[in-house]
Amino acid sequence: MIREVSLKRLGLWIFFFLLSTAPSIAYAYPNETTEIEESLEKGDIDIEDDNDEDDDDDWEDDKDDDDWDTDDDEEEGLEEHRRWTCRKELGYQLAYGLKQNGLTRNRPYMFYEALYTPDCKGKITFTGEGSFRGWYDFVTYDNDIEVRSLFGDWKSDSWSFKAGYQEIAWGETFGVYIMDIVNPRDLADPFFNELGWIRLAVFNFNLQLYNDPWYCQLIVTPIPRNNWFPQEGTAFDVLSRPPLVTLRGPTGFCIDRYGKDMEYGGRIGYLFESGLDVTAYYYRHWNRDPVYRLGLDIDHLFFKPVLRRVDSVGASFSKAYEETVLRGDSILHIRTPWTDDFVGKWKKRNVWRTILGIDRQFDDDLTIGLQYHFDKWKGEQLHYISTQLTYEMCEGEMSFQIFVFKGLNNHDLWVQPLLNWYINDTTTFQIRVDLLDGKSKYGTFDEGFIGPFECKNRMFIWITKSY
User: Fold this and answer.
1) Secondary structure element (H or E) that encloses residue 187, with its range
2) What are the pLDDT digits (tens) for 97-127?
3) pTM beyond cutoff 0.85
4) CA–CA dist 354, 392 (Å, integer)
């Protein structure tokens, strides 16, 4: 079901556009500073230097000049009083299905980010951040204005506390982010693996404590959010079902539940003198893996996402040896919903996932990473290998990257070559191709997970302009 453009949403679009095009908010000064500047420009304030009488004549001469400037020290002092900084981005995303012979995404968007930093002189500092992204898709006629961040951040030497809408990154490995479970995901395009886009910001309280070499993080999300699932009839709606079976979205979480649905957990880590960084995790949350149940309404059948609480425990590590980095993530989802035999039938399973990897930087331009993936649940095992190569070209003006994800005891294959062209400091052009292969005839475990998407090869173009 496509979301409709309501008057309220249209109003938000207009407000968002005006906000993103307003240049005056980029740098705002405190009232006291602004008044001083105005007085200086009018010549109402005399500047005297008690330490150097020889400079008095110079200052008198300068005051008669309409174009006089303060010295570097005073300019730097004014810079320190700046409270607001902002970043704006306009972009366009275009995806073409190579086997579908048609567009699967046609999406212009606007992004606005503002950072508020008052002049704090105490031991505790405060920073406020807000960012929003608005987009419209001409293929699905879908649109949204997303809150990407909206929080306050209090910091001291030994702790930090964030409250508000935010994204929280967990894990060490690349490509497949098994440890990144705090935020739900936008699964409408499962192969658009940009975490800055697919993580859904949630309102939570995030406390971090530091006491070298220990660190600790505690997280509480009072009102969670669901994943965004592929909508019925869109490019990545691959759920096999008879024509009369409809696809429904998940049940939402309500404010009047007063925290009964909340998610919570944290992590604790230790940094050894050798440089080995080890972290242990626990998080109680609603299941992140998409699992559907078959339901019966009055006159028809439907598929609907399953929502159940899950306890997840895990660990990660990283260790750097000059140009080489070893890293790993391992997580156990306890009694998580899992598709059993065929779509619509599910059971609770203990699912264990592990990724072990190594990265090597051969020079300033070439980096290669290699990873081993392991998935296990009730007697079934899947083994994968992935690699990622990144090469900087043309003195940093272009970069090439290729990511390969290949099943060892299954038929899954995902190849993604990507080229970035940094046209200038503010403009980037990117083109990538997603090549997918697999099998999904019987739905058995040895066919992997990519099989339903084997006909979804596509070319993706992304243009960004920052201000």
Assistant:
1) none
2) 998 889 999 999 999 999 998 876 778 999 9
3) no
4) 30
